[in-house]
Sequence to fold (523 residues):
Amino acid sequence: MIRFEQVTKHLGGRRVLDRVSFEIAKGETFVIVGLSGAGKSVTLKHMVRLLVPDGGRVWVGDDCVSEANSRKVEQIRSRFGVLFQGAALMQWMNVHDNVALPLREHYKKDDDEIEQLVREKLALVKLEAALEKYPSDLSGGMRKRVGLARAIVTSPEIILYDEPTSGLDPVTSRTIDTLIDDMRQEFGVTSVVVTHDLHSALAIGTRIAMLHGGEIIENATPEDFIHSKNEVVQSFLDAQYITREGDWKKKDAP
Amino acid sequence: MSVQPQQLGEPLNVFGRMGRTVITTLHGAGQGGMILAQAIFFIPSMFTPRRMHNVLFHMYLTGIKSLGVITVVAMFTGMILALQTGLELRRFNQEVNIGTAVTVVMMREMGPFMTALIIAASVGSSIGAQLGTMKVSEEIDALEIMSINPVRFLVTPRLVALMVMLPILTIYTNILGSVGGAIVGKTQLGVSFRAFFDNAQLYAANKDLYVGLFKAFLFGNIIAAVACHQGLTAQHGAVGVGLATRRTVILSFLIILVVGYMTTRLFYV
Ligand SMILES: Nc1ncnc2c1ncn2[C@@H]1O[C@H](COP(=O)(O)OP(=O)(O)O)[C@@H](O)[C@H]1O
Ligand SMILES: [Mg+2]
Fold:
């Protein structure tokens, strides 16, 4: 579904991605982990042509996003829903209008239908009560959930989540994990999740990749990931108290 | 997207730096011009109820919010003009001509100019800051993902508001300036209101008004283009937003001055 071929990207005079290659199959939940500044957000942005590689290619389905013309890019982007790291809500619009924005501006739907979809998605992220509030009145975690509702309101085929659970309490984090997992199981959505939280990575990921020093140093199923021989991966696991002893059994998300 | 000149490495010598400055300036001017052209292209798409509502909201922000400052500045501009010219003219017993002097100068030059400076410093800077904040907090990216053209969505409503409101505010400035002049004429120079406005009517031509309003219209376009361009190309977090705001004000002032001179030259020489 999504394929990176030898993608290289320089930003701010530094090589952020160094010949990165990987492939994500349809219906997967692909989790990207890595330290802050490792280039996780940069990787996501390449998938929707917010960044163009200096070298290599990015494919979405049969289309080469990195070389598509603007009409094609628009068409490819319409298959995506994106949750940005900082939620990226329009500050002057209330929660309802923010979630309705992609429907109103792009998909020519009538008001009743929009109304219903917005309420339905906000209920999924448990924010029905905040309909009239403005982003500045919400906590970081609530903003993120509004961003999530906006990302899924158009029922996209592919959803990119940039740190969906950072800044959220553990209980709400698990709710979001469940939501991401449901999107895969019920609608066959392909997801790419960037996270620091290995517990949620292990719970929802069908595959986990670790980005370090501009390269993918591990790309494996959760079971194999925790048994990785790579030292950086091991220290990353240790830092979150995930033990390699015994068989890791993937729990169903709560 | 191509490589931006400001993202290249440090140039080696003084010629390299000069070349860089020239290229960056031209590049910026080109980008700003493109944004303006696109924004104008999208004007016809503003005629739906929701978008019209948005345009009216920006007109309100532009017009009403600055009215207080404009009132004070306009009055004092007229008063200063009346006092300066009046004191000179009194030496020749011509002080009644301050009517013409004040109104003509207000209509041709000072009205649009003072209005544009105030709007650039207040509305322009806040547009630069707002769009800059949106840029660095990924909101512009989010719009692009939703296939919402940022120029149509953000720039065109502000452009329309500025190109409509600047001439209207200029008329207001002209009127208040003349009133200020008349008050100084009456209190300091002994020219009655009646004599002041009779004198003004005698010499002020319609052309003075129209050229002034045309200038105001151009200034509106300039402020919108500079502010939106600076905002949409902001980089590097909060520092970038500050820089975008600063540049908006300085660049608008410069371009307003130059274009003001050139327009005068075009119509009066
Ligand atoms: N637009 C940009 N301009 C310059 N440098 C950037 C830009 N975007 C990201 N970077 C740099 O690229 C690196 C990776 O950033 P990012 O992908 O956001 O990290 P993370 O893995 O934490 O999401 C960082 O060092 C960041 O400073
Ligand atoms: Mg990031």
About this structure: The radius of gyration of chain B is 22 Å. Residues A 40-41, 85, 162 surround magnesium ion (ligand 2) (CB under 6 Å). Residues 230 and 247 of chain B are 7 Å apart (CA to CA).
